[in-house]
Write a structure and sequence with these properties.
This protein is 27% helix and 13% strand. The protein is an alpha+beta fold. The protein is elongated. Bound molecules: iron/sulfur cluster (2 copies).
Length: 165
């Protein structure tokens, strides 16, 4: 009966919210007075004042270059194969460098599907893809704009969010 009328659940929810509010209020007040207290919770003012990221944070992908400016990617498709979200699409072509069999003709990542697991980085045998761009503000007004391609992943072109028309 208590579960069906929801009063118990509603009361518990209010109690938890109120407890967090008053505990944090007391912590901030004590610290403002110079008294010892644990830090209270704060609201991150994103994007104006983003929180500092851990050096281990997995952020938007980037593709690394060789000294001659070409992509390190050898189009082996290991990242595409291992991706659990199936959000990487690579087209291979023959490389003009005789020492390298293939290179990526196109390399697309749909960041709207990516779950940021980092498996693609782990799988890459030539260390061609990293997730250390520190870019977490990947957003768009259209799903198609969440697909990042080779020049954007190599930092040669920007992909700003476009306003809907
Ligand atoms: S981080 Fe995970 S989900 Fe995202 S592209 Fe890499 S393997 Fe796929
Ligand atoms: S695993 Fe590395 S080399 Fe292979 S296709 Fe992906 S980024 Fe390119």
């Amino acid at each position: 009966m208590a579960e069906r009328i929801y009063l118990w659940g509603a009361w518990r929810g209010l109690w938890v919210t109120s407890r967090h509010f008053f505990v944090n209020l007391a912590r901030h007040a004590l610290r403002a007075l110079g008294l010892p207290a644990r830090p209270g919770a704060v609201t991150i003012q994103f994007p104006e004042d983003p929180a500092a990221l851990s050096p281990r944070a997995r952020t938007r992908h980037r593709l690394l270059e060789r000294p001659d400016g070409s992509s390190r990617c050898t189009a082996c498709l290991l990242c595409e194969t291992i991706c659990p979200a199936e959000c990487i699409r690579i087209t291979a072509e023959e490389s003009p460098d005789v020492a390298i069999e293939k290179r990526a003709k196109s390399f697309d990542i749909d960041l709207g599907l990516c779950v940021f697991c980092g498996y693609c980085v782990e799988a890459c045998p030539v260390d061609a893809i990293h997730m250390d761009s520190n870019d977490v503000a990947v957003c768009s007004f259209a799903r198609k704009d969440m697909i990042w391609s080779l020049p954007e992943l190599m930092g040669r072109t920007k992909k700003p969010p476009e306003a809907p028309v």
